[in-house]
Specification:
By secondary structure, the protein is α+β, with helices and mostly antiparallel strands. It is 43% helix and 18% strand. It contains 12 helices and 7 strands. The protein has helices at residues 5-8, 11-25, 38-48, 61-65, 78-86, 92-98, 100-107, 109-119, 149-169, 202-215, 217-223, 253-266; strands at 32-34, 53-55, 135-141, 172-183, 188-199, 225-237, 285-287. Helix 3 (38-48) links the parallel strand 1 and strand 2 (53-55).
Length: 296
Amino acid sequence: MRGLRAISGNAEQIAKALRRQVRQQVGLPISIGVATTKVLAKIASNEAKPDGLLVVAPEQELAFLRPLAVERVSGVGPATAARLHAHGLRSIGDLARAGEPALTSLLGRHKGRYLHAVAHNREVKRVQARRRRRSIGSQRALGRSEVSADELDATLAGLVDRVARRMRRAEQAGRTVVLRLRFDDFSRVTRSRTMPRPTSATEPLLASARALLAEARPLIDRRGVTLVGVTVTNLEHQAFVQLAMALDRPDTAALDAALDRVRERFGPEALKRGSLVNVDSAVSAWLMPGDVPPES
């Protein structure tokens, strides 16, 4: 919770607010433990069950930790506990007094070091922020049969619809549209275009993708295309994107939101572009590396 005091209060205040929000929005009780290490916070959370909040102050952590049974430590199952009991090690305090060499000799290097660190309330694995998402994309195989310009454009529009919908669900906006093509001879080509400002709106993303497809048209005509993919990169969280006034073109945000709601409720195939109606629905499609399925 370091760094959040000025925004959300101290760790205890944040925990109380979190429990209250979950109760109001989901209707479920949760237990939270607060401590200076992840392992101790987890142990405190278990001690606070079924519906409580336990804050272990830094100066009280070892006093709280040491009397607890070894089974309270995550990763100590029945087999490990039985081995520790057989050597007279029943509490976390016993682990601290045993020392690291004895624990590694008994349980192996990895688990021995882990339990020794826990017994002394040393951080075993630091909190790491979620890695920033770099791209959202989708691709579709077209097979070896000849694909007309209209069919290719319809496929591209369907991919952009899918990608834009996932971007809005993830609250991401992107500046760079990447078009990926694979040809009959298995060669590949990638084209990209960066827009002046990030967006998750379908129409500007589709306009950029269509411009890239037009640039690649000579290659497509010569080689034949067997796969097309669309990826949006240079992502930013939607909350940090500067809003733009729609002075020269209609604002399609409301339309995108309405379409998203219908598809969320009735499935992605509930609404589709008219140009996609005659496109072979049996053509295989899959996610690009790093893409997230709608259910995730």
